[in-house]
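input
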Amino acid sequence: HAVGVGNGTDAIHLGLRAAGVGPGDEVIVPTLTSAFTALAVSMACATPVFADVDPGRYTLDPAAFEAAITPRTAAVIPVHLFGQSADMAPILEVAKKHGLYVVEDNAQAIGADYTFPDGTQKKTGTIGDIGTTSFFPSKNLGCYGDGGALMTNDDDLAAQLRMIANHG
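output
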């Protein structure tokens, strides 16, 4: 499923809302990201919590992510950056262990592949519960103006996303 929205910040914000993230919740984001990733968390009335990045990939460090989890943590936003994927296998494992939603920020890595330890490959933005992207002109897949989208393989989540995107 793909749901179009006004921009990438809206995509993250609406993805968090569809996942039930709201007041009192925390969302873990990497320290190296656009300010708009954390802004989208704040727009959902949640608190962004920053976790360090892997110095080799410049994406969310799975160990730092796990260390940042508190009882209030509801979701994580791995940001795929510079055309490469965050290390998703351990991120997914930690998220599953703690019952957290995974909302991928894929605005800077559209078309990138992630190879799991078993050799399976998936496109970034299709790995977590929700994938988000921006079509701002400076992005990897830009448009004339602004735009964004959310992607999910979950029928119920897609219905929720469409409802929120269309009716607020």
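quick obs: DSSP finds five helices and nine strands in the chain.
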